[in-house]
Write a structure and sequence with these properties.
Adhesion_GPCR; four-stranded antiparallel β-sheet; transmembrane; Hormone receptor fold; Chondroitinase Ac, Chain A, domain 3; glycoprotein; alpha+beta; Cadherin EGF LAG seven-pass G-type receptor 2-like; AGRL2-4_GAIN_subdom_A; 416 residues; five-stranded mixed β-sheet
Length: 416
């Protein structure tokens, strides 16, 4: 049907609806039939028609032309039809006027309704936009618009997950190609769309799942580079849309890094790895914690305060008094700007009448440590030091130590 989606025209404008059969082979052995357009169960007189196409046209529309228009093939054995709803707006009715936004033509729409349009060029899916009751356009919702290359990559990984790991070499090649593709796609644009961020989260999760089940090697540097690109604060608006429109948020990426870390450090043959990105730093290594402690980030890190030999935000696990048999693998991460994109919601109850006047926010970088095995009670304990991002009103703030609870997707004071 053309138009493809429900549409609106103003009273007095032309109204044209076209129906076309795109798979003529489906009519093989179907005799004495024809395309028909109906409205409210009544046949419409076509303006132009052929065996595979029918067009209905009215030069001057009226409000009574509003309704559902349906196209069908009269003698097709299994009833198949397609419909579109047309709304003719009277002169006195409020409406949102036609405009182009996000490379999408949003045609005139009746107030209080939602408009659907195909996504911008090179993206697949359906974009929606609300015309509010005052006749003012709300921002477009592009959460279901995804770059075609992301969809293709996701589909390839789905095939591997559904069919099982039958060819480990081919699986490793697919993962490697997917990661390099994603690295190119996420680094070549100043701001990722909400749909592409949502798709990136899904693809990275699938890569971790495939790696976990197949034991395939993974280009860790490229994986971390993709995560770094997606975590950019340039994408903060898109991250807000992802959090509002889906069940995902930035913690989904943190979880994937944690899960990949667990896979990597289960192997006793750990190779030391360092990644320094614009948005997070990571170290994979092993140490005998009864001989050498862990300090992260290290002195050479970009996390140091200018003109100082100390670090703004770091953790330190001192040399342990309890003896260990062998070196322990670990992954340490510092997320530099996660505060810009991670929700500030916490498990802390609103216990005062003035709670509505309070604003909870993440006021530091975020530290993470994953160990190869449970190392039990620490002596000396793990020491964490955080530098506040905002310091102007520090005296008016209540500072809390929190950790991210992946089960509730909230900050929790438990364990602090």
């Amino acid at each position: 049907m053309e138009p493809m989606f429900d549409f609106t025209v103003e009273e007095g404008e032309q109204l044209t609806i076209r129906c076309t059969i795109q798979n003529p082979e489906s009519l093989f052995n179907i005799e004495n039939g024809s395309l028909a357009l109906t409205k409210g169960g009544s046949n419409l007189t076509p303006f132009y028609n052929t065996h595979l196409s029918v067009t209905w046209h009215k030069g001057t529309s009226i409000v009574d032309d509003s309704g559902v228009y349906t196209c069908l093939y009269t003698t097709y054995p299994d009833p198949v039809s397609v419909s579109v709803s047309a709304t003719v707006i009277a002169q006195e009715q409020k409406r949102c006027n036609s405009e182009i936004s996000n490379d999408i033509q949003w045609n005139t729409t009746l107030a209080g309704t939602t408009k659907r349009e195909p996504c911008p060029p090179k993206q697949k899916g359906i974009a929606t936009r609300q015309c509010n009751v005052e006749g003012i356009w709300e921002p477009p919702n592009l959460i279901n618009c995804t770059t075609e290359a992301f969809l293709n990559a996701s589909s390839e990984l789905d095939t591997i997950l559904e069919d099982g790991i039958t060819n480990p070499e081919k699986t490793s090649e697919t993962i490697d190609n997917t990661l390099h593709l994603m690295n190119n796609l996420t680094s070549c644009t100043p701001e990722l769309s909400a749909g592409d961020i949502s798709s990136s989260i899904d693809i990275l999760e699938k890569i971790v799942n495939v790696t976990n089940s197949s034991g395939s090697s993974i280009a860790k540097e490229v994986f971390f580079s993709v995560v770094d690109n997606v975590l950019s604060s340039n994408n903060s608006k898109s991250w807000n849309a992802v959090s509002e429109k889906t069940e995902k948020d930035a913690s989904s990426l943190l979880k994937n890094i944690d899960r990949l870390s667990e896979v990597v450090i289960q192997n006793d043959n750990i190779s030391a790895t360092q990644f320094t990105g614009s948005n997070f730093e990571l170290t994979i290594n092993k140490t005998k914690i009864d001989e050498t402690g862990i300090r992260f980030p290290e002195v050479t890190s970009k996390n140091s305060t200018e003109g100082s030999d100390t670090f703004s935000t770091f953790f330190e696990l001192g040399k342990q008094k309890r003896k260990t048999d062998k070196a322990m693998g670990y992954v340490a991460v510092i997320y530099k700007n996660i505060a810009d994109i991670l929700p500030a919601s916490s498990e802390r109850p609103d216990d005062t009448e003035k709670s509505s006047q309070k604003k909870a926010f993440v006021n530091s970088q975020v530290l993470s440590l994953t160990t190869q095995a449970n190392i039990g009670s620490l002596n000396p304990p793990l020491k964490l030091t955080f530098q506040n991002v905002q310091t102007k009103s520090l005296s008016e703030m209540q500072t809390l130590c929190v950790s991210w609870n992946f089960s509730t997707n909230k900050w929790s004071e438990q364990g602090c």
